[in-house]
User: Which sequence fits this backbone?
């Protein structure tokens, strides 16, 4: 903000100088040619697009930038675990059993009872978790946005059904419902589990989008679009949707963190992702038997979850501030 | 006020009915009660036929629903699918343990969360404020089961190193818990870690909301007026600002009750507490739909009650709502 003001000052000064050449008390007016140059220089300020404004604000958010950097490294390493990890996920090395974290032989996170390298196992598990979480965020945001938009725009029965469903989900313990669905339908497959989580999570974003649409549909620009003959679909998706991007993006970001926590909890309790697919929650479950002697078995995968979620939450915070500076928390 | 409470009570009846419909049809369509049993080699066709007859599984779903409602209301949720064991006695014992855990955690989280929120709002942008913010961000990011496991590791190692028991790390009671005060202290030593694990997550939420709610109120005109007429700062904070800032927290606490029950499922699993959560997980592992539905129904009723209490409190705190 302050940067913008500073950059605009030369033009403002020039304009002022131009309009009141002999103003009393002001600085002496510069020579004509110099003034002209300054004036034109001032006018050449480029208009910034919304995207540029957003980027400038986000980049100044140090915590969010650092978080984004760390998250990108973790995601990159996890998604390409088969190339980055020093060992395979199930690679057994009986000569190196229950080793504490060490730099020797790249066992950064130690090894378990049968000598499997925990750094590699955590990387593979993170890969699954991250894939599941992004899938959940994408699917639930897509469903929630469409349903919320239609319910908010058309009101009527869809709105009623949506809100009753939301009421119901608020009245039952969410995790219990998720556990029931995952236990009966999940079959330990990451994409089934992800779909189940998404199908229960979309209501949050639907509620937010619905609220936005309810107020947006009364705005003049929607009326103008309708008056000029735009179809409903065009109004909903081309005119109104861009105006709800901020909360949608922030919520999608936070959903990634929530999905990682939920998936880890499901897998830990034994109703989420099952072997042979690696998962962080399952790693913690496997490690808890020996956690009093081999502390790293539980600590390391957990720290990975905490780091990822912390980064995502900080990024979400930065996004919220950058996308909507008027709503930033004091 | 009485009519307000009565109206809210009446209003929650259709919600309970609706919840029972959704729970029954949801669970029935998701989980075939016999699906798991059919795959077990030691379960004979005769046993299956008996179950079908006992639970009227050959009837259409709506008829089954009515039967289930009848069982639930007149026979306390009836019996389990396998073994024909009555559900309610087991569930009631478990319910009591879970309530101890959840209520203690909720109270602890509210007290500390509100305290932290108020203090960090009063000292906005201080070191204390940033520390509180960090604590609450961590609370959003830590999986509760992992936090519970870490607590177990820490306190078991403290016990091993020093030989003195501060807190127990599993179960509900010692083999010989004693009576009266001794029993209470023993229970507290067992429940302390689960309560801390469960409270931490909610504490993060409450302190965050209390902070922003307090910041909103602190700048309000009536707070400036109170200060202008010379009231002591502590009095302004406590009587004028905090009371009004608390109103949204009441709703938040009620909404969070469901999350607490979810957290209790996980916490009980880690600390092997024989509560409702453990009962639910056992039923889920056995794929036995009847105790599952009973669990969902009872927790739903509890959440509805929590919302009701919140509404009544809300009406008490904010007369504008009551008179609407």
Assistant:
């Amino acid at each position: 903000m302050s940067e913008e003001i500073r950059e605009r000052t030369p033009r403002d000064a020039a304009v002022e100088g131009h309009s009141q050449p002999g103003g009393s008390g002001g600085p002496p007016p510069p020579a004509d040619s110099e003034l002209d140059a300054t004036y034109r220089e001032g006018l050449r300020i480029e208009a910034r697009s919304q995207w540029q404004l957003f980027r400038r604000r986000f980049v100044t958010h140090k915590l969010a930038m650092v978080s984004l950097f760390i998250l990108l490294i973790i995601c990159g390493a996890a998604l390409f675990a088969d190339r980055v990890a020093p060992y395979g996920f199930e690679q057994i090395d009986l000569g190196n059993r229950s080793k504490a974290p060490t730099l020797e032989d790249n066992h950064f996170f130690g090894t378990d009872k049968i000598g499997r390298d925990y750094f590699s196992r955590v990387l593979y598990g993170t890969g699954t978790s991250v894939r599941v979480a992004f899938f959940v965020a994408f699917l639930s945001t897509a469903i929630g946005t469409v349903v919320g938009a239609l319910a908010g725009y058309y009101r009527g029965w869809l709105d009623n059904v949506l809100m009753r469903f939301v009421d119901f989900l608020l009245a039952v313990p969410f995790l219990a419902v998720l556990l029931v669905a995952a236990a009966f339908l999940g079959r330990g497959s990451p994409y089934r589990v992800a779909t189940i989580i998404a199908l229960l999570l979309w209501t949050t974003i639907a509620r937010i989008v619905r609220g936005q649409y309810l107020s947006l549909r009364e705005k003049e620009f929607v009326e103008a679009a309708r008056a000029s003959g735009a179809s409903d679909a065009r109004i909903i998706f081309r005119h109104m949707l861009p105006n709800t991007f901020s909360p949608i993006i922030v919520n999608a970001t936070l959903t990634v963190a929530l999905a990682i926590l939920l998936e880890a909890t499901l897998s830990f309790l034994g109703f989420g992702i099952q072997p042979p697919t690696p998962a962080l929650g399952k790693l913690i479950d496997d490690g808890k038997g020996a956690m009093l002697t081999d502390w790293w078995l539980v600590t390391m995968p957990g720290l990975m979850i905490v780091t990822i979620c912390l980064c995502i939450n900080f990024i979400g915070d930065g996004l919220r501030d950058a996308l909507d500076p008027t709503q930033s928390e004091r | 006020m009485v009519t307000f409470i009565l109206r809210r009570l009446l209003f929650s009846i259709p919600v309970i009915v609706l919840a029972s419909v959704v729970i029954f049809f949801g669970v029935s369509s998701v989980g075939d009660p016999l699906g798991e049993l059919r795959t077990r080699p030691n379960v004979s066709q005769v046993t299956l036929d008996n179950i079908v007859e006992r639970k009227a599984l050959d009837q259409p779903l709506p008829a089954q629903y009515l039967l289930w409602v009848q069982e639930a209301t007149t026979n306390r949720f009836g019996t389990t699918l396998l073994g024909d064991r009555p559900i309610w006695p087991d569930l009631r014992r478990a319910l009591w343990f879970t309530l101890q855990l959840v209520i203690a955690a909720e109270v602890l989280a509210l007290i500390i969360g509100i305290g932290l929120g108020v203090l960090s709002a009063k000292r906005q942008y201080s070191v204390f404020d940033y520390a509180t913010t960090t604590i609450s961000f961590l609370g959003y990011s830590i999986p509760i089961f992992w936090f519970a496991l870490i607590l177990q590791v820490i306190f078991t190692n403290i016990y091993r190193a020093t030989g003195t028991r501060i807190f127990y790390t599993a179960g509900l009671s010692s083999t010989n818990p004693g009576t009266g005060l001794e029993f209470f202290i023993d229970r507290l030593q067992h429940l302390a870690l689960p309560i801390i694990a469960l409270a931490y997550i909610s504490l993060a939420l409450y302190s965050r909301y209390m902070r922003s709610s307090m910041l909103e109120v602190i700048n309000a005109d009536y707070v400036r007026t109170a200060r202008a007429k010379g009231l002591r700062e502590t009095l302004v904070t406590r009587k004028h600002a905090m009371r009004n800032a608390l109103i949204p927290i009441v709703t938040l606490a009620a909404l969070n009750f469901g999350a607490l029950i979810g957290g209790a499922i996980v916490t009980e699993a880690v600390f092997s507490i024989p509560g409702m959560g453990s009962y639910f997980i056992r039923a889920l592992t056995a794929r036995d739909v009847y105790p599952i539905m009973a669990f969902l129904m009872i927790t739903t009723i509890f959440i509805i009650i929590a919302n009701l209490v919140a509404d009544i409190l809300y009406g008490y705190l904010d007369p504008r709502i009551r008179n609407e």
The first helix of chain B runs from residue 2 to 30.
